[in-house]
Amino acid sequence: MPETRFKPLAWTKLQRGVPCYLPQPPARQRVDVHSPALSVMTDFQRLTPITVRHDMSLDEANRIMGLSHAQYLLVADGQNHLLGIASEASTRGHHPLAVAHQLGIRPGELMVGEVMIKKHDDAEVMHLRDVRTASVGNVLAALKELASPFCLVVDHDEEDHHVLCGIFSLAHIERLMGVTPSVEVAQTFSQVVSSLGR
Predict the structure, then answer these.
(1) What pairing do the DSSP bridges indicate for beta strands 51-52 and 162-169?
(2) Beta bridge mates, 153
(3) Which residue has the higher pLDDT, 28 or 194?
(4) Distances 73 to 3, 61, 80, 121 between C-alpha atoms, Å
(5) Distance from CA of residue 52 to its chain's centroid?
């Protein structure tokens, strides 16, 4: 039978007058186009993505994205099944205005599910088995081909179901490469092309 009575771990109080420093962020890993693709993938097993419901108001979703500095939100149902992804491009600017006009409602009445990139309609994914042997350059070339600032990565379980395991974000890759994040995707892709040629 396992031991259920444990000796308390030793503890003490911080001493007055002795500085206690906050931890320094780890040195940012510098990557280039030849680095392994996994080095720039956001791994959802290590960093849990922000997930929202499809019936959340668009205003609330934008507030969450602003407070958390997130560029996207995953949209899931009550059974934790992925329904889609809401990116800054789909929740701000022209797109939600066009959707509201099409639905005949005010932009303030929009919900996340009405503007998200739906899983089966428009969401492209990469497979982890391919990512494991790829380079950053391969990922950038794929994002350029997709004309998208991000792409989800999926693995497969024993029953061959898709399991969401990560995401590639162009802005994140640019930061790791020391490239100034650009506002326009097209402008970013021209920078990517030039970096691939170096």
Answers:
(1) unpaired
(2) 126, 166
(3) 28
(4) 43, 8, 14, 17
(5) 13
